[in-house]
Amino acid sequence: MARQFEEAGIAAIIYTDIHRDGMQTGPNVEATGALARAVKTPVIASGGISDLSDVRNIIPLKDAGVTGMITGRALYDGTLDLAEAINLCKGETV
Question: What is the DSSP letter of 44?
Answer without folding.
Answer: E
